[in-house]
Amino acid sequence: CNVNTVCVKTMSAPGVDMSDYEQLGCLHDLFIRQAQKTPGKVAVVDCDGSQITFEELDRMSDLLANKLHRLGLGKNKVGGILMERSLEYTVAYLGILKAGGAYLPIEVSWPKTLLDSVLDDVNPSVICTKEALSARITQSGIPFFLLEGDWLQQLRHEQKDLPIKSPVKCSLDDIAYVVYSSGTTGKPKGIQCPHRGAVFSFTWRHRSYPYSEHDREACNVFFVWEMLRPLAQGIPMYIIPDDTIYDPPKLAQFILRNKITRMLFTPSLLQALLEYKGVDLQRSLKSLRQIVYCGEVLTAVLRNKVAGFLPWIQQLNLYSISECHDVSNADLSDPQLDLSSRQFCPVGRLLTGVQVVVLDQDLNIKSVGEPGEIYVGGPGLAIGYLNRPDLNKAKFITRPAHVPPSVGDRLYRTGDWGYLLSDGSLEVCGRCDTMVKIRGYTVELEAVKTNLMDLPGILSACIQAFGPEGEDKTLVAFVTPQENVTLSNRELRLQLKKRLPFYMIPSRFIIIDSIPVVEATGKLDQKALLAVYSKLKEQAGMLEVSKVVDGHEQPITPTELKIAQIWSELLNLYVLDTDESYFDVGGHSLLAAALTSKLNELFGVNISIASIFKHPTISAQALLITNSSCMMTDKIDLQEELKKLLIHYNGIDLNVRSFWQTLYLNPNKFSKGTVLLTGATGYVGCFLLQQLLLHTQATVYCLVRESPHRSPLERIMQAREQFGLRKFVATERVIPLKGDVSLTLLGLTKDVYNSLCLDVDVVIHAAAQVNLILPFNALYNTNVLGTRNVLLFSAKSKIKPVHYISTNAVFPSGLQDVKENVDMNQFCDQLESGYGQTKWLAEQQVLAAIEKGLPVAIYRCGNVGGSRLVGGWNPADFNLYMLSGVLKTGFAPDIKWQIELTPVDFVSQVITQLVCNLHESVGKIFHLVNKNTLPCQNLYELFRHLGYSVKTIKYNEWKALILKEGEKDTQLLQLSQLLENLVKEEIYFSSDSTYSQENLTDVLKKMNISYPQVSSELFTWYIESLSNVGILPQAETDRNIVKPYGNLKGKVIVVTGASSGIGEGISRTLARAGARVVLAARRLDRLQAIVDSLRKSGAEATPVQLDVCNAEQVSTCMQEIESRVGPIDVLVNNAGVMFYQFMKKCDLARWQHMVNVNINGT
């Protein structure tokens, strides 16, 4: 169907005909017509209880209109109203409109600076006010009229001999009012609104929710918007005094005494009323029949509380914006309405005639259900901002040509984020401008609030970011508990840690009785919240530290408090738990160094950075500093931990049967389906993604944690380059997702999570925190909870097979011929490393899923080595650290070490093939641990053969050397920490377990694949390829290196496309064979880096920038090479480009690019 008909919705509540609203006249015409119908009926009941009729109000406003007209007010001129809510305010409102003017509401609560700014901006023709407030008008030349005392008699006397004037004739497009933003940030802006929008909105509401004869409407909040609505239908308007509206007992008594039936509330105002203790609201509000919510997002919690406590009240949720008036409305009164899965209430269907289109940042139309920024068109739009052409251009845009004309020529950019539903309803998700920077990360405040409000016991909450503009902010949560609920800062933090990444967890939780509101608007009072925060910040007790042992609060020791203060300073946190890991709350390697320095300086100790990793909590660090005998690590009872992780897979039998049935119908669903890959930026995950792209047709969702400075896609690209894979070309088959396996819903929004549950066909869970030093608690969230969350995902909505990447670290060392199906329970008490313990727990959850019938496979990997295809290796791998330690120092330890590794390309190949062939993998465990090891002495000899100077020394001497050299070299520093904290004794190297591979041998035979051996040939490739890219040092001499292509010394060879991949490899090989290589490509910076590397090893190489598609440049370049380097002996044309794409997609630009490079370039 046509995209415009799908994406632009104009549906409204059924049965509302708005075709004649333009014939109803302007705002004051609505009132005049009603006054003529019901002249003797009560129109306004003032704050003191006095009443006037419609006829009296009509005459009073006529007299005032004549006076204001003589004072200079006329069509499209502005008349101000500066007074409290009162009868006189209503008269002034109507008088200004009848005089043809536009009213300007001036709040009595405005500070002098804001008042002066507004009056200077508008320069009103006249101001209606009262004596006590008139002194605030200091601008000269602005006349004002006082509506108090005998003002009415005075006007009657002045006009007794004057002819009666009819109201000034205005059109719907003349200005009716100018309203100002509160001015809390930046310069306040005046919004000029015509009669059209208000007349349209009033008419729609009158016809959609008609008044009954006995209705009474109370007004104060949004007074200028609301007071005419009942008056235009002959319904009395009761004015709520300004000193009553925010006083819950007074407000409740006012509603009860006056038998009010309808009223508009901001959610914050109603929340404050409901939270107030000691008021019988069921009695006080028994007359209320309808509540309209407006001005703020309505939470499902508040709606449900009203529905349960005051079920007779109709609840209407109105989405209204000053710049475009009412947009949509939702009736939330249906007792069957289920909002249990929602945080915020829907805003319902669009008003008849109102147009909404959802666009992305490039103004492209978003499809139904696809979120973007909400743009509004139609009769409600304002004329624009007063004296702000820059803002008008940015916010009131001309309709883009590709947007259908039905939305109107102008659109208002709301700044709200949302989407349209198929029934025409609008969903508002939050603000586009509530993004703040927290510790370098971009944080959406509404997302934090949503997750906080999902926690039990919370009635309302507000998230604020405090700090100077342009600098890092401090995230603060203000929380109001539900009745009879006590909220703990510690518990709130611990609960949020399961849902949000560390940088989205507020630094401070402040428990308050109610969320403050601005008296003038009824909206959130941000200044009051800032005052509360600032007051607490000044107090000595700003930092809160909790210590819980066996469920009971314990006193904080002086040492723990001092450490906590250092943490707070480094991490900008004010709520800490002594058992939280430094690395779970924002700490990293650099901050670990800073922490180490400060602890050593404060306590006069000499602890190492490695100790911080080993003892990452405040309690552990305090014991470390005091050298307590209690520093022994508590024994982790893995069986007890496992009981806490039990997943009840209730009602999955039908889904499991359906899964197998669909697999029989579509046996290729995994090779052509949709994959969720976790750990795509890790070593194995990166090569798995490569295999999936090269050898399947699958679309791959990559779940990637956010980085402060890189997007998920950029992180994937960075990982590929780090591990030696060619630069990643963005493809529609790779969809990066910002998330975290350790968090509830994988760190995704509910909508995205639920969509993925239906879209994904198979899960490859490769994400893990691999650290052989960190303790159990530091690795628990990612390794244990992450696996649990993946399993929950795999069983939701439809069954999805899980391929889980495990490790041989789930076994203790020293075992022989470990079977794939061995009972793992016998080993849980023998595991010492936190990594092995957490992976054991994770694997036990996966095994439990297999027992329940879920399609799962487990791959236990040993040491995963470098690739046999590209020059890359995991830079954090222990084997690589050992190689570097030997080659960088020139000394090797005399140990009994059988080097075990499996090339990463083989690991990823096997797993990918088994992902595509579920019948061979489901329910099975595969040991990817190499049986064919290499003695380290053979490796040392190979080093010497390849030109390295390597001497063998005793292990303790070598270890001491590494510790010393580690002070100068980062890679050797990492090795020294592993030797100190992991290896400890020389026996570590000779205690590796061996493993049975029956399942693996069987599938390899069927795949016709051989398990690669750890051989001298393999290590020759590793050493040469890794030294060429700088991962390992170059050999001192290459006299023993075989020249596979003969003696090319002196030959000039030009290689095109030499900046990466095959071209780079050819260039390096030819250079090592003695040729004078000229590397040609478009990326000169990359060529220079390669040439610098080659020259360090004594090779001759020259970089030349060249585009093979440019014939003139090629000719000139070749002449230049011959003049600078010499006659060209050989030309290797490697430049080329290839895009994998179906022809039916007809990407002509890519096709032409391939023609230019591959054909014309050649």
Coarse shape = elongated
Going by CATH, the architecture of the largest domain would be 3-Layer(aba) Sandwich
Would you tell me which CATH topology of the largest domain applies? Rossmann fold
Gyration radius (Cα, Å) is 37 Å
Number of structurally distinct domains: 5
Give me a quick take on this structure:
With 1162 residues, the protein is an alpha/beta fold. Helices cover 37% and strands 18% of the residues.
Notes on the structure:
Keywords: Phosphopantetheine, Phosphoprotein. This is Carrier domain-containing protein. Pfam families: adh_short (PF00106), AMP-binding (PF00501), NAD_binding_4 (PF07993), PP-binding (PF00550). Residues 554-629 form the Carrier domain. The chain has 1162 residues and is an alpha/beta fold. A hairpin with a 5-residue loop joins strand 21 (410-420) and strand 22. The protein has a nine-stranded mixed β-sheet, sandwiched between helices. A seven-stranded parallel β-sheet has the order 34-33-32-35-36-37-42, with helices on both faces. The chain is elongated. The protein has five domains: 20-41 and 52-195, Rossmann fold (3-Layer(aba) Sandwich), CATH 3.40.50; 437-539, GMP Synthetase, Chain A, domain 3 (2-Layer Sandwich); 545-632, Orthogonal Bundle (Non-ribosomal Peptide Synthetase Peptidyl Carrier Protein, Chain A); 644-1000, NAD(P)-binding Rossmann-like Domain (Rossmann fold, 3-Layer(aba) Sandwich), CATH 3.40.50.720; 1052-1160, 3-Layer(aba) Sandwich (Rossmann fold). Mean pLDDT is 87; it is low at 1-14, 628-633 and 1039-1045. Helices cover 37% and strands 18% of the residues. It is built from 41 helices and 48 strands. The protein starts with a helix and ends with a helix.
